[in-house]
Structure formats: C-alpha cells, structure tokens
Design a protein that fits this description.
6 copies of one chain form a homohexamer. Chain A folds into 2 domains: 98 residues, OB fold (Dihydrolipoamide Acetyltransferase, E2P) (Beta Barrel); 180 residues, no CATH class. Helices cover 39% and strands 22% of the residues of chain A. Chains A, B, C, D, E, F: GO terms for molecular function: hydrolase activity; nucleic acid binding.
Amino acid sequence: MEFSSKKIRDLAVGDRVDCYFIIKRVDLKTTNSNDKKYLDFIFGDKTGEISGKLWEVPQDIETYFTEGDLVKVRGTVTSYMNNNQFKVDRIRKASEEDGVIPEDFVESAPLKNTDMLRDIEGYLQRIADQDIHQVVRMALEEKKDKLMFYPAAKRNHHAIRSGLLYHVLTMLKLGDQISKVYPAVNTDLLFAGIILHDLEKINEMDSSELGIVKEYTLEGNLLGHISLGVKNVDRICDRLNTPEEKRMLLQHMILSHHYEPEYGSPVKPMFLEAELLHHIDMIDARVFDFTLAVRDLEPGGISENIFSLDRRRIYKPTF
Amino acid sequence: MEFSSKKIRDLAVGDRVDCYFIIKRVDLKTTNSNDKKYLDFIFGDKTGEISGKLWEVPQDIETYFTEGDLVKVRGTVTSYMNNNQFKVDRIRKASEEDGVIPEDFVESAPLKNTDMLRDIEGYLQRIADQDIHQVVRMALEEKKDKLMFYPAAKRNHHAIRSGLLYHVLTMLKLGDQISKVYPAVNTDLLFAGIILHDLEKINEMDSSELGIVKEYTLEGNLLGHISLGVKNVDRICDRLNTPEEKRMLLQHMILSHHYEPEYGSPVKPMFLEAELLHHIDMIDARVFDFTLAVRDLEPGGISENIFSLDRRRIYKPTF
Amino acid sequence: MEFSSKKIRDLAVGDRVDCYFIIKRVDLKTTNSNDKKYLDFIFGDKTGEISGKLWEVPQDIETYFTEGDLVKVRGTVTSYMNNNQFKVDRIRKASEEDGVIPEDFVESAPLKNTDMLRDIEGYLQRIADQDIHQVVRMALEEKKDKLMFYPAAKRNHHAIRSGLLYHVLTMLKLGDQISKVYPAVNTDLLFAGIILHDLEKINEMDSSELGIVKEYTLEGNLLGHISLGVKNVDRICDRLNTPEEKRMLLQHMILSHHYEPEYGSPVKPMFLEAELLHHIDMIDARVFDFTLAVRDLEPGGISENIFSLDRRRIYKPTF
Amino acid sequence: MEFSSKKIRDLAVGDRVDCYFIIKRVDLKTTNSNDKKYLDFIFGDKTGEISGKLWEVPQDIETYFTEGDLVKVRGTVTSYMNNNQFKVDRIRKASEEDGVIPEDFVESAPLKNTDMLRDIEGYLQRIADQDIHQVVRMALEEKKDKLMFYPAAKRNHHAIRSGLLYHVLTMLKLGDQISKVYPAVNTDLLFAGIILHDLEKINEMDSSELGIVKEYTLEGNLLGHISLGVKNVDRICDRLNTPEEKRMLLQHMILSHHYEPEYGSPVKPMFLEAELLHHIDMIDARVFDFTLAVRDLEPGGISENIFSLDRRRIYKPTF
Amino acid sequence: MEFSSKKIRDLAVGDRVDCYFIIKRVDLKTTNSNDKKYLDFIFGDKTGEISGKLWEVPQDIETYFTEGDLVKVRGTVTSYMNNNQFKVDRIRKASEEDGVIPEDFVESAPLKNTDMLRDIEGYLQRIADQDIHQVVRMALEEKKDKLMFYPAAKRNHHAIRSGLLYHVLTMLKLGDQISKVYPAVNTDLLFAGIILHDLEKINEMDSSELGIVKEYTLEGNLLGHISLGVKNVDRICDRLNTPEEKRMLLQHMILSHHYEPEYGSPVKPMFLEAELLHHIDMIDARVFDFTLAVRDLEPGGISENIFSLDRRRIYKPTF
Amino acid sequence: MEFSSKKIRDLAVGDRVDCYFIIKRVDLKTTNSNDKKYLDFIFGDKTGEISGKLWEVPQDIETYFTEGDLVKVRGTVTSYMNNNQFKVDRIRKASEEDGVIPEDFVESAPLKNTDMLRDIEGYLQRIADQDIHQVVRMALEEKKDKLMFYPAAKRNHHAIRSGLLYHVLTMLKLGDQISKVYPAVNTDLLFAGIILHDLEKINEMDSSELGIVKEYTLEGNLLGHISLGVKNVDRICDRLNTPEEKRMLLQHMILSHHYEPEYGSPVKPMFLEAELLHHIDMIDARVFDFTLAVRDLEPGGISENIFSLDRRRIYKPTF
C-alpha cells in the first residue's frame, strides 16, 4: 500500500498516510460557499494534535463519531493558516482486530499509575503524626480511583493522562530532598500539604478516563479547587475529630499554595511548610513546561513564545 | 470645683478637667532621661481617643489598671508632636456611685441592638425558599449572642460596638430598596448573602463586650473570615441536607463579596445577586466613612487625607 | 411558500427563510479566488446580528443599499468559523406595503422614550435647590431631542436605542431608593449628578436615530464626555450665574463618576453624593450586563467569558 | 560682637549666631513634661529651612509673630533626631533700619521676573496664528500679576518664588530648540500649549507674594488645575469666538500634558505637539530636581533617596 | 500595454498592474479545498507591504524565489479580510536590464548614510574629554560598517534601512539643542551616551543589508542589547585603560536608558545626562511614530489605534 | 558585684548590667534642651541590637570610640518609644585581658567559614565541563578572601557574617538534591550558576571584616551586582577563551536570577537551569527569613508583620 503511517508530530504538508487517531473533538458544519455539510475534527495521538476535515459526509454517519473514539483515517496533510490540517479520505472506528488501544493514543505520565500510587502511599506511611496521617489517608482513599487517570489541568502543565498523580509524586520526591537540606522542616506537614493541595481538581474539572477535560464543573467555576480543598479537609476533620490547630494548618497550606491573590490564594503562607509547598509546586510545574518546550527543538534551537511561561522563548543548549 | 468636664473631641490644649474615660490601652514604661516609671494610657469616650501619661506611679498601682476599665481622671491637656495629650494628675476606677456605665463611653451603633436583631429577623422571614431560609436561620441563631456587640472591623468602617449588626441591617434595607428597581433580583439569595457574608468576622477577630478588638484570632490570621464563612455554610448545609446548588450559590456569594483578589476574594461574582452583594457592601462602608469624615468639619471645610478612603480629603458642602 | 420567517436569535444552520432585517453595515468586496464582487452585510433585528453575503451582485445595485435600510431578504443560514452566516438569495428594500418600521428591528429600551423623559422630568421637579434645578433643567432641555434615541455606549452596557435615557431613569430610581436608607443624602445633588453625568455622550458619539453609533466625534476623541460635561456645566452656569460652590460640586460629580483614573476620572469623589453617583452608575451597568449575559441561557447554564464583565462567565440559577 | 551670621545651609551643630530669617511657619505649643508654652518655628532663607524653638514665651508675644515675617534671631544650633535645630535666645521683627527685604530670604527663580515675562511675551509674538495668539494673549494677560511671584508647586520641582514663570520660560526655550530639529512641529501650537498648560495652578493653589503655598484652594481640590485649565480656555474661546478645532486642540494639550491617568490626564496626547509638551514638561522638572539634588554634594558624592525622583539617589561626577 | 504601474500605498481593489516589488517573505503552501500548491508572498516597496498569491506554481519554481529578491509582477488587486491582496498572474526576478535596484524598494532613512555618519563623527569630535572620546571612537569604528544599513528595531520606530544611524544622529542634534538651554549639561557624557546607547542592537538583531530583520540573535535573546552594551564598553575600556568612574558612568547611561525595569533597565538614571538620554530617546521615537501615524491621513483625519503608541489614535490637524 | 551580664535579646526594662557589646554605630550629638553633648550608640551582640546613650561625655573621649570596637559597658535598660534603650554609666574598650573577641559578638553563619569554602570547592570539583569549571574556579579564587566574612545583604536574609558563603553552600546542597529528582538537569550549569550568581555583592557593598555593611559602593549604586556579575564573567571568559555559548549561558543565569524586572532582572530565565537557580535562591532566602521570624516565638505564637516577607505575620506551630 502506498500509504505510510506516521505520528502527528512527524506529519508534513503533502504526506498521504494511514493513521490511528483519537477523536478529541468533532462537529458537523456547513461550508460557507455551497452549503455542503462536512465533519470538523480535532485528532490526537501521543505526539500532538491536528485538525481534520471530512468533506463528503454520508447522512448516516453525521452523528456516528464522538469524542474519545479511536479511529483509523486515510488522507492527505494540507496547510491552512500556516498550520497543518488533515484532509480525510476515509475514516472508520478502530475495532478489536486493529490491535490498538486508546491509552496508546493519548499522552500519559511517564510512570505507571499503579506504581505512582504505591509510591505516594509510601510517603503517606512516613507521616508520623497520627492526626495528620488519618486525614491524608482518608482524602487519598476517597479520590484514589479518579486519581489514576486525572490530568492536573485542562491545559498547561501536567495536562496529560495521570498527570495529577505524577505531579503529586514528583512533588513528594522534591519535598523529601529539600527537607534533607533543612532538617527543621516538618515533613508530616509538608507531605500532607503536597498530597492534599490539588486533590479537589478532581471535582473542579470533568475528565474522561483518557485524561481529557472538556469542561470545568459548576462547583469548579463557582468555588474553585482551593476552596473545595478547604471544605474537603473540613469535612474529613469533622469525621476524624482532628485537633483544631492541625486542621487549620492543613487548610492554610491548601489556601495559600498559589501564593498570589490573583492566582487564587486569599492568604500568603504563614509557616515554613506552607511556603515550601508553594515553591515545590512552582518548580515541578516549571520543569514540566520547560521540558515540553524544548522536546521538539534541535540543540541550539529556540522555541516560539510559550504562553504558560509568561510568553518566554526557551533555549535548548547544545551540550 | 474649678475643673470642668468635657468630651474628648472638645478638649483643647491648656484645659484642666475632670473626666470619665474608658482605658483602651495601658502600659508601664520608664522615662528615657531619668529611669522613672510612668503609666502610658490611651483613653477613650464616645467622641474619640487621647493618649495620657501618669508621671508619678506609686508601686501598688503599677498593674492596677487594665484595658476596658472605666476611670475618673483629673488633669491637663498638653500638646505633643502636634497631638493633644492628657497629663494625669489623679486617676481612680469609677465606682457604682459615680452612676456611669462603660457602654456610655464607647462609640456604638446609633440603633439599639435588640431592635436591630429583630429587624434582621424580619428580613429573614421574607426568605421564602425554605432551604435557604433554614441555613440563614441556623447561622444567625448560632452567632446571635456575639452579634449583639461585635464591631464589623478592628479599625475602619463600622469599628464600633454592635457595628456588625448595624452594617448587616443597613445592607438589608439597601438590598430591599434596590430590588424594587430591579424586579428580577432574587431577594432570597440577596438577603441570605447579606446576612451571611461577614458573620465569621466573629471568629476572625477577638472582641470584648465593649466592641473593642485587640487581636485577630489564629484562624482569622490563617484562614480569614471569607474561608471561615464558606466552611461555616458547609457545616450547616451538611446538617440540613441543603441541595447542592443552593449551598454552592451561598458559598459563592461569601467567596466573591470582596470582589478583587487582592482584597481576599478568589473568585468574582458569577450571578447577579453576588454582584449586588458586593456593591451594597461597598456603599454601606463608604457612607459610614464619608459620614465620619465630615462629622467634625464646619460646613465648607475639608478633611485631612482619610486613610480608609484611599487617602482622599472629603468636603462638607455649605448647603 | 416554503420559506418561514424567524428572528435572528432563532436561526439555525440549514434554515431557509424570508426575513426583514436592518442593514447595520454593508461593504462591496471582491472574492479572493476569482475576483468576483460580492456584498458583505451585517444584518440586525431586535434579537441580535448576523453577517450575510450576496454572491451575485448586478452592477446597478453595488451601491444601492446603505446602513439603516430596512430590507426583506430570502436565503439560507450557513456556518462560517463557528458562527452563523446568512447566504442571501434575494434582497430588496422594504416598502410601505410591507407594513414594517425600522424601530421594530433595532433593540430598544424596554420603556417608551416619551414616558421615560416624563419620569426624568418628575425627578427634576424634586430638585428643590433653585440654582441646581435651573442648571439641570437647561442641560436637559438642550439635549432632550437627541436623548430620545441615543444609546449610552457604542458597545457594552445600554448600547441600545434610547439606552441613555433608560440608564439615567433607572439610576434616578436607584438614587431615590438608596436615599431612603441614608436620610443625610442630599437628593438635589444626587439627582442632578445622575441627570448630568453622561449627557455629553451625545456630543462624544455620533448616533443615527436608530441608536446605532458608527464613530466617536473628534471632540469625543480629543476631550471625552467627562471633560465635555464639565465644560457644558460651566457654560450653563455662566449663563445662569450659578453660585460658585454649586457649580464646582456639579462639575466634581461629573469629573469623578468613573472613579478610577484609568477609566477617565482625574479626581476621586470628595463628597457623599459624588461617591454614591459612581456606585449607582456601576450597579445599573452591571445589572444590564448580567441580565444580557443570562438572557439566552437555560436555567443551570453558564455563559461564555463576557468581555464587558472582566471576562467572567455568568451562571443562571435553576430557581 | 561674638555672634557671626550664616546662611542656613552653612549652619553646624554648636554654632552661635545672629541671623535674619523668614518665618515659614509658627505654632504656640506646650511642652510635654511641664506644661510650659513655647513657640515652634520653621525658619527659612534662600538656602534652606531649619526648625526653631523659643522656650520662654512672654505672654504678649504669643501671637505676635506670623508666617512671612522677616525676623532677626540670635541663638544656638543644636541637633534633634539627626536634624539641625535652632534654639532661639532672642527674636525680633526686622525693621526698616535693618536694611533687609523679605525677597532676599526666600528662594527665587534665578532670573528677574520682569525679564522673564518680557521673554515669554517675545515667544507669544512668534505665535503667528491669530486665533491661537489671541487666546494665549488673553490668558496670559489675566494671570500676569500673580504669575510674577507664583511657584509652580507647593513642594517638589520649581516650588520657589516666580517658579511658575521660570518653568514656563525654560520650557519655551526648550520647545524652540527642539522644533529646530523637527521642522514639522507647529510652534504656534507648541508655544501656546507651554504657556497655557499650568496657568491654572494660580487658581489651584493659594500662594503668598513670597511664593509660599499654604493650601490648595477648594476648586484646586475638587477639580484640579487641568480641568480648571480646560474651563479657562473654554471661557476665553467663547469670548474670542475661536474656531472649534483650535479650541479643542488647545484644551487637549492641557488635558493630556500629565500623560498618565494616575497623574491626572484623562486622555493621552493625540497629536505631535501635545506629545512634545509632555516631554518638555518632564525634562524641565527633572533638570530642576537633579540640579537641586546635587547642589550641596561634593564631587563624587551621592545624595540620599530623593522622594520626587522616585526615591533615587543622585550622583555628582567628579569631572 | 494595458497594465499601469503603481506604488503599494496607491493600489486599489480592482487595479490591474505591472509592478516591481521586493519579496519580504515567501512560503510554499497547499490550498485547503483541493490540495493545490500555491506561493504565498509578502511584497514590499518604499510605500508599504501587500500580501500576494500565485495560484499556479510550476514545480521548477517552487523554491526559486527567496526573501530579498527584487521581482517584476503582473496581477490584480483583490480584497481579503478587509485588506488588499495581490493576485499574481506573472512573476519574474528583475534583471540588470530592468534598471531597478533593491535599495529603491525598501524604506530608508531620509538622509544619506554616508552624510549621517560624517555628521555623527562631527559630534564625536566635540567630545573634549579624551578618555570618553577614545571609548566612543573605538565603539563607533567597530560598528561603522553595519551601522550604514541597520534599522533601529525589528518593528516599531525607525524599523527602516539605516534607521539606527538616523536615530542616533537626530538624538545628537536634540541633545545639542537641549544643552543650550541647560549649560550645566556635560555634553561629553551626553553625546557619548547617545552614540553608545543602542549600538549593540547590531549584535542583538540579525539584519540583511536591506535593513530587514528576520530574527533576534541568540545573544540578543539571552542577554539583550543593554547588557551587550555594558559588556562592549567594558571590553573597550579594558583595552584603553579608561578611568574607573568614566567607565561606570558610560555603562550606567546604557543600563538606565530604558528607564522602566519592565522595559529592560535594571537601574534608573542617577545623574543628569543619563536622565536626559532617556528623554531624548523617547522624544525621537515618538516623533517618528507620530509622523508615520499621520503620513497617510487627510488633514482633519484620525488614525486607527496605533499599537506602538499605547493603542492611541492620532489626529492630523487641518492647519 | 551587683551587676549581672546578659545577652541583648534577654535585656528587660530596669535591668542594671555589665556587658560586652560591639559598637555598630556611634555619633556625637547635642541635646535639644540644654545643648549638652552626648554619645549616641547602637550596640550589638550575637543576639541583636540596642541603642545606647552616654549622657556625660568628657571631651577627650568625644571621638575615642568607633564602629567595630568591642567595648565593656555598665548601665541600665530603659524604654524609649516602646523600644529598649541602654543608659550607659561606664564604658571602656575591651582589652586582651578581657578574653573576648569581636567575632563572638556579631551574628555569624552557623558553620565555620573554612569548612563551608571547602564544601563549595567540593561542588566545584563536580563541574565536569572544563570550560565552565575553569570560569567558576577563577571567579571563586579571586573572591575567596572576602567571601570568608561577607554577608549576603546589608539587611534582610543572610545579613550576617559569612552569610554569603553560607547562602551559596546551602543553595548548592539544594541544587544537588533537586537534580536527583530531575535527572535532565545539567548540574554543571546549575552549580556554576549558584556559585556565580551573587559573587559581585562583594563589589556592590562595602563590608567590614565583621560582616557589617555601612554602604553600597559607587559601582554597586550605578550598576548593581547583577550587571557587575555579567561583566566579571565576561572578563574571566575573555582570559580563558571560554566558548561563546557557555559564556552567554553563565551570564544569562546571573542576569535572570532575580526573575522579575522590578527586582533587577532585565530578562527572565530561558533555560531550565536558569529557572531552577531562581527558585533555589528564593527557597533559601525564605527559609532563612522564616527561621528568623519564629526564632524568638513561643510555640503557638505569631510574629509581628515581617517586612522582608511582604509584611506577613509568621506562625510557629505547637508541634
């Protein structure tokens, strides 16, 4: 067959290919000039996204495809408004015989989610203070299932399958290492803050099991994950009868971890572990974004302006 | 007797007077030049504050006076650093025979607190939605006793005895009037938001029964009255099984009522009643501060820069 | 006839309809691919706007249509860049026999303009101070004719026919209600400030009698309605020999009503009525924008980011 | 006589001197420790200011001295809070026989005011456009008398006798020179803008004939010199029937000359001469402040933080 | 021949013309609808830019044209998205016989570069301090060749051929004139600061000999022309053994000339000549931008919002 | 003897003690009331500072004491403006027999400076890239002597003897630990950036061997340690012929390490190690300030507003 198969990142204008893609979005539209219907797709695989068009739409398939479908497509790469676009010639849903699974077509954390959860539970074991330990255990237990696949954001840093789990685990490792430099750090508080700080993103956003977020939830919009986090700890502490000071310190860490009011924190860190939590969160987000920014660059190359990095351009050293 | 009695606002340099004052602060200090001990006071009455010094301190009274004491003092008004100061010749605690009560020497809301509470309960009656009604009723019931005397702030607007009660009542009147202009306003939500928005100031600050706040509480410092308010509504709604949407809307009103992130609101109002709550809160605070700013001015006079009003100077028209 | 008639808000992709529209904008253009001329329209009715294309343009009608024309069009609704678009098959100007009038095809204030003016004059009657009364009466008299149809803005809040009149009247009602809560408010000053504050928008913008603004005027660009308002009051007070203090207070209210320097106010309010004027203006603008934001939402729905509301998304409660 | 005479800038702790000073401020106060009255002065001469105390105050002179008095004082220079202070032994008003005049004891512009006015009128002659010429002539004529002594500010740049005149003249020279580099500049507009831009400071502040400003006027507080300037040009243009465009451009230059909204300009410059006016104003203010900042420094020295220069420290080169 | 020739600024929709253009950008693209290749150009001449399309692309010319080529094109002016566009019918590279040179098709400074350099060297001669003179001479000598054609920016002010040379010369003229008003200005420092302040833009940006900048260099991105300028002066002063203070003052002028930290200056001007350098730089940039903004306006016309002028609209007076 | 000896932190009003102090500042002043001379001291020891007064000053000791002297003083602790003050009865310089050394009376880093330097050199050994290694070695070698005692700041974090050394070492430890979590980090670059980033503080500030900074140097004021650092690396790389890219990356790390323009960084980090350098710097500064803030608090206590921590109050948990 003349059609080769490529990853989205490798597609070039003019390529004629057979590929498996995930449908990340699909809309039925009508052309401007002659009222013909067409399907407007966003396809994705592990390496990126590309928009696609199917110009001839038999009526019976107008609503046949939906988001999250794994499909096999044949077509040509064209250019539109300086971006690659995929002109679909044929498209069908992948079947069992194709031997492909959706998980292979979405970007995921580089570690296995069950391993990550086990490692996080290892850190949980190291929280010696029993009051704090119980709160964190219960919070983690309740969210465990969704944590397996949730991303850490709709877009920006860690917006990948199991991204939230990966973010939390890496932060725990960081917190552990930093505490070795500063022995006065209370790792019970720090580990607890790290595990709890973003947990309510699971209620703030609505994610499919592929880690794709379509929308914020209503409570996400009206209250935000920080206030949801405070409420969640409150509820758990009520049940566990957690002493007042510990409850307040855990809530304060959640409340202050974005640091700046305009990023959603109404108070700034007032004890050392809350301060460290913020910096650890920042470092892990930035390492993720810097790594992504240079992933496709040649050594010595410089990126476009990266929105999530204050529109900076990032350089990849040659050595 | 040669000594007259005056209100603090009327004292002038050179006056020699007998007055009753509340002690708002008292410290034992030592003079710089000759190591003599003296008592350093801040005295107050309904009309203002004045600092005072007692230069000869018999050892047995070094710790005799304390904040909140109502005292009778005799002395002279001097000037120090361009401010009036009170040089104390004699001082004693007021006794029953003096026929004075502390409440008459602190600034209070212009309405009787029992009347104000009754009026607020009248507005509560008008909340027709039974879910919302129950939440507000329980919240109000729990705070009722302290609400009788709490100020609305440590300083700035409504920092007077029963100031919080007065602020809430006036806001309810405003909300009622504004709703007549815009019939689409849901007064159930608006009245609820007004009653609930600042209730947790009672846990944020530590006030004496005279409405004088010495300190913020630890939870006030670590969490702030806005987050405390969200938690409080959560706890009550858990008990009452309030439907999810109503719970969220009540919490959103509390969360967004300061409007700007740098004033403590992590989200901005997302429905009309939350938006109105913010403006009503602002108007009532500003009317209070403008009224205070011109209280002692002659018509045609202009105030000094007022800190709480963005350092503006306020003008009192002649007509 | 197979073609039905619909309001713009109700049009759906694929609809084939006969409608009356107002032409809000029309340009003769040439297509990119084959140099053919076409007419590019923005059509409007009471419910919204839609862009339209006429692809075959006989030479004699190239300049036949103009903004403000009421036309009858037949055509199909298509989709372009995710927005509805109207492909025109036939178009002609409406004639008397059609029995339609332009006023029915532009969005207007919900009250009759003659009624609104009469009500505003009622508030004018309540200004007891004769100096202030005369200034406001003359200012209103001079602008009365244009006030009948002017919008309050080119876009954003109250950008509708007679929107300025409606904005002023609603603010007067608000001012009246708020003054009942604070008896110290001088309603002479407040009502005067409300009626005068935006009057010079009539000279700042150039509006057709349908309330559609194409452009700011030169003096609008160079000086702005606030400075024009100060000058206008100056001119009137010169003629009426208004006492100096009253003149200054009226001018100060105009000057400070946007409150923030970056929104055009070089001074901040320095007396109570100027402060209230600002808040009343804000409330009425916000109520308008919130109402608009939820107008087409289902209960429980949430809007897109609204530009004029700091890019907030607005929620419509289900109850 | 053992007492020498010195200028304020040259006084050192321990000096015992006979000097003539201007009284810039005087208050009758009472000492903190023993209720004794004393007079608290701020004295000034051409070289600076020093606070002074007269500890023994015969009753008949308690109100004898007033601001602006030229006095002869004998006393000692002491140090208080790291600043020099003048302990007065003797003080009397200067009489004719002393042969001193107040003007010699206040800081004044370095040029004679009559010469400066004559030079400004020379620039006025160069405004060829008769409409603009007439407006500027009338505005200048009306303010001429006060312009002879007014400072340009209460404090900060050009806060000296005849400082406003000096500021305007230097700006005209600058405008003239800059226009030689850019021949397209319309010097009629630029010279007019320079002469008019600050004229209403004369109504904004209340200055004695010595160029000392005690207070802003009410219209200065409520409207500010920029709005006063716009009104003033309006009034003059009404009388002269100035064509509309020229009136607007003159008013726009006044309105925009502070450039930033937070410094009082509601619009930014919209034509070249308005833009240049702003920069010329800035340059002249900055040259004045830099010159003052290094006046008393040794070469190679660095100043304290200068408030009017964004708290910068200014360096004086050695060459 | 039926085809006339026009400048880009004069082209109107429907024109059919033969023109010489410079190619400012060229990309091979594929159409969206039918996968056909086309060439997408940006053409330029002294009067502006226009995008162009060549729809039929013989395979042998797909990569034949490149940026900076001077070409002869025949085609039609169409309209796309409200902008003119050029539909190319024929295109070929210009040859010697055409008698045209690239320099005539890019916008250049209005003075001859050799004349400008000579004038700058004249100012250099006037730097009397031999230490400073030597530094500036060496810096100028090293950059002379590139200075002949470099623009002062990639876009915004002075983004034209020889724009940097022109900017520096005009600033020197300004500095000279301003110094006549303030005799205390050290023109040695000021002239040196002006010549040095932007020289390292030559290493910050990569410009063709036509003055067209495609990219910032790596050191331009990582360090910026201000830090490069400080380093450059350091290197030269090392070689010349320049006294320490002079070296620091020259470096301080470069470092502080953008004034605001957010525009790249880590320190603010700390002596008069550094302060003046900033204002002179601003004035010359603004005069350039204002002049450009009104160049194509009719008298009495007003521009669109100009990005480089804080989005202001600029007015062109009628007189 | 009746006089005990105490550390400054332990002094209470009324204490009569014999102590050794370091003189941190001394001025000869004259009293306000009676022109008597006195010596005004700031004394310090390892635990804090206290101001002191010697009221009777024999003429021969007026200039006898100087900053940095270690003295023995006898006197009484009084209170002035709510701060403790030391009334000196006797004072003499400490002599050898006293058996005390200045180093014991200034606050120093908690590790021995020779140990710290050795550890830093250990990290230096781990920089494998020989170009980078050589640059860092030379820079460190040149500053080694002063690094032994320099503080990292005039005030704020690490403003203690050998504070700079301590700050650098702790950052290296942090960088080492963080790199273990992110294996992609180039520790050659990161360690180099950490060692170099603040080295030029040694030329920015003028410190005594006790680590007390009186003043910023002229080059510190005019250029700042960031620009000095860039120049320093430039000079060393010139000598060592360091490849261009490595030179630029080292300079970029210095230039960007304060991150925000308003804190002195004209560019933001453009590669991962520069980004990490900033966060590591922040963490170490914050840990220092938090530790200091709670040092004297009881568990459960809350500090005053800490200036260097954005005026936050810091809480010390009870567990």
